Structures are given as C-alpha cells and as structure tokens.
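Q:
Got a chain?
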Amino acid sequence: MFEFTGLAVLMGIGATALLDVWAKLLKMLFGLPSGNWAMVGRWFAYFPRLKFVHTQGIMHSAPVAGELAIGWTMHYVVGIIFAAGLLAIWGLDWAHHPSFLPALIVGLVTVGFGWFVLQPGMGVGVACSGAPNPTLARLLSITGHVVFAVGLYGTALLLS
C-alpha cells in the first residue's frame, strides 16, 4: 500500500507539474489562457455548502477565502487521484515497466471529468459549450490531458 500511495503521489505531482509547464509555455508563446485555479478553488470550496453547480457561472458566486490556494491544491490532488486510477487499473507492475498506452488512455478518459463534471459545475456548460471559443477550449483540454499522460509515463519512467 505504501508503494502504491508513494507512486501515485509522485506520478500525479510529476504529471500535473508538466501540465503546468505546458500551460505556461502556451501562454508565453501564444498568449493562450491557462486554468484559473482561483475559480476552481471557489468551485471546490462550495462543496461543503452542497452547491456543486453554478448555473450563472462560478465568477458570479461570492469569493471564498483562500480560493486560489484551494484551487492549486485540488489541481494537484486530482492529478494524484488520476495517477492512482492508472495504478489501480494497470497495477504496480506498470509503474515498474511503464508503457505509454495506459497513460494515454487515462489522460484521454480524464478529459471527461473536465467536460462533464468540472465545466458544467462551474457554469461553462458541457465541454465548454458556453465558453467564448468552445473549440479552442476543447482542443486545449484534450492536448493538456495528453501532456498529463506524457507526464504520467515520463514520471513512471524516471521512477522505474
């Protein structure tokens, strides 16, 4: 259990950090927007109040103390959970002998969390249908999760 947890934490942090580097690179080179972790933190902070969907958009919900820190923390916690999912399905042997396909599958499947849970919950609609540029938002989501998959695989390679 200790090995599973340690690998999930390290792989999740490694993959999420690579995703953050990717987002910074896209912003620096192309001026593309990156995740607003304060709004993600606000969304999570409303959970204890049993508010999971902000139909008017999360920006219209009252700010919450520490929402930026909550957002960053949850960003990494979710990355760790996704890494744990990969290990739960493919086992610790995968981490000792990683191959890219399982990481890619997890990366692509987790796009669904954003499209069908996070974005509708934050009031942006299914698959960012209410975003100013839904096609760009969807493309950034898919490519970001592929980068996350590369991070899962690469971190597992470094650890194996």
Remarks:
- The two ends are 17 Å apart (CA to CA).
